Amino acid sequence: MAVVSLKSDSTTLILNGEVVRDLIAGDVLELAPTNPKTSRTYGANRAVNIQQRADREVYTLKFRVMRNSDSDVWLNEQFNQKAPVVFDGSIKEIFVKDGEEMVESFALEAGSFTDSPTHTKNNQDGNSQVEYTIECFATRKL
Q1: Most CB contacts within 10 A, which of 1, 18, 42, 51?
Q2: Per-residue pLDDT band at 64 (split at 50, 70, 90)
């Protein structure tokens, strides 16, 4: 399935009212649909039953922040809660169309961490990053 790539330099990610400020410069946030929109059952003589899936708007969101940054500390606290934290929020990306600045957004609902964060060190400049993965319902708005 396709992946929506949003440039971190022009994107704002908000989770439970908290702005995730420490995204990796020059990186992308990845929003990938988990399931198809419809399912199909085929029968004899070219019969087909098409059903809209209840889980059609489920997406996997992957994003990277600077390790030990304020955003990493907050996300790590959410990850380590005893009960799973449920995230609502949004992703907003600024783009230019016909010379005008516009905003594309995704509403995020009922999200939760699905994987443990991964840590990567950069040998060139000593910076390191943490990748977080959240699965949620996402609805695109223009």
Answers
A1: 18
A2: very high
Predicted local confidence at residue 5, as pLDDT: 87
pLDDT at residue 70 in the model: 95
pLDDT in tens, 23-61: 998 899 999 999 888 888 999 999 999 998 888 889 999
Reduced to 3 states (helix: H, G, I; strand: E, B; else coil), residue 60 is: strand
Helix (H, G, I), strand (E, B) or coil at 6: strand
Q: Which two tokens stand for residue 59?
A: 């997406």
Give buried/exposed letters for 30-58 (b at 16+ CB in 10 A, else e).
bbbbeeeeeeeeeeeeeeeeeeeeeeebb
66: exposed, middle or buried (Cβ count in 10 Å: 0-12, 13-18, 19+)? middle
Q: What is the pLDDT of residue 53?
A: 85
Question: In Å, what is the CA distance from 130 to each residue of 32, 34, 49, 95, 121?
Answer: 19, 22, 44, 26, 9
For residues 31 and 17, give the distance between their C-alpha atoms in angstroms, rounded to a whole number: 19
The domains of the chain, with CATH numbers, are 4-37+50-141 (2.30.110)
